[in-house]
């Protein structure tokens, strides 16, 4: 929390300094144009006091105004307005801004205080568990010495293994170079020849010792007949494997064909069922159409009969009318 308040104070100081310097430069300019008087009419004239950079000059007037030292008799109306605005900003606005920043920082820190406490506690527990030795100093000297000795022993073993590998590689490269030199018949100094011969002899001796150290396997030697039988057995195994592959392939083909046939038959049965349903619907529609046609024909016959009856009545009515007119 203190660090965050220090940051807030730094922000306040930066704002306050910038604003104060701006008003100081403004009042120094006002003094140059005789709008700010460093010497009153009743005071004695002093060249030092009339200077802009003196203690009563316009450059220092805002700094004194912050602490309440100002004299309105030295200002005209424009300078008085500037000093009033600066006093309001520097003494009221910025101070209240600093107080508000402190309050906001305190509220934020208080809100996260529980999490901060848990974090610090976990960090301290981690340090005492993994970094700092649980045994206090002076008493833990033997333990630390033992750990250092273990570390040095491990380091020495690693370096020794690396050195052995390097020596082995150098020896093998030396033997190879000696063999190449012997094969090519290169000229060498007696000392180098002696070193090469010693290296070759040591390599041969080492290989002989390794060969003698390994137990001889009596069953490792295979006779030609046994080799032939093993070859025949291998061929039989290969033939059996190929037959098994062919059998598996034929079985897979049979299964695939069977599945394909079943799928085709299932699809055909589905299509047959759909065709049957379609045929039933067509028959139903034909029956409905025939029924409707029969009903329409009956209604048409009735209409024709009614029309014939109406025509007959009209004819009879006209004949009666003619008879009546004749009478």
Automatic annotation (TrEMBL):
It comes from the Eukaryota. It comes from Prymnesium parvum (Toxic golden alga). Keywords: Ion channel, Ion transport, Membrane, Transmembrane, Transmembrane helix, Transport. This is Ion transport domain-containing protein. The chain crosses the membrane at residues 12-33, 82-103. GO terms for cellular component: cation channel complex; plasma membrane. GO terms for molecular function: inositol 1,4,5 trisphosphate binding; store-operated calcium channel activity. GO terms for biological process: regulation of cytosolic calcium ion concentration.
């Amino acid at each position: 929390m203190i660090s965050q308040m220090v940051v807030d104070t730094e922000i306040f100081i930066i704002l306050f300094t910038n604003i104060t310097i701006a008003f100081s430069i403004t009042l120094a300019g006002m003094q140059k144009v005789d709008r700010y008087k460093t010497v009153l009419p009743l005071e004695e004239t002093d060249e030092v006091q009339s200077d802009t950079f003196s203690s009563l000059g316009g450059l220092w007037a805002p700094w004194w105004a912050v602490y309440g030292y100002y004299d309105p008799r030295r200002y005209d109306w424009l300078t008085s307005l500037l000093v009033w605005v600066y006093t309001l900003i520097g003494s009221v606005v910025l101070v209240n801004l600093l107080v508000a920043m402190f309050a906001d920082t305190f509220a934020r820190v208080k809100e996260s205080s529980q999490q901060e406490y848990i974090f610090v506690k976990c960090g301290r527990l981690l340090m005492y568990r993994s970094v700092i030795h649980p045994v206090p100093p002076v008493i833990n000297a033997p333990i630390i010495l033992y750990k250092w000795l273990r570390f040095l022993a491990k380091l020495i073993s690693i370096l020794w293994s690396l050195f052995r590998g390097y020596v082995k590689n150098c020896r093998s490269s030396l033997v190879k170079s000696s063999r190449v030199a012997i094969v090519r018949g290169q000229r060498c100094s007696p000392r180098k020849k002696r070193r090469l011969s010693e290296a070759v002899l040591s390599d041969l001796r080492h290989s002989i010792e390794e060969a003698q150290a390994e137990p001889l396997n009596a069953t490792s030697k295979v006779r030609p007949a046994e080799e032939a039988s093993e070859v025949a057995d291998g061929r039989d195994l290969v033939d059996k494997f190929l037959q098994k592959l062919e059998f598996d392939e034929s079985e897979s083909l049979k299964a695939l064909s069977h599945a394909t046939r079943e799928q085709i038959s299932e699809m055909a049965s589905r299509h047959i069922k759909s065709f049957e349903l379609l045929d039933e619907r067509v028959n139903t529609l034909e029956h409905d159409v025939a029924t409707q046609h029969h009903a329409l024909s009956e209604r048409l016959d009735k209409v024709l009969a009614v029309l014939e009856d109406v025509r007959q009545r009209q004819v009879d009515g006209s004949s009666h009318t003619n008879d009546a007119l004749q009478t």
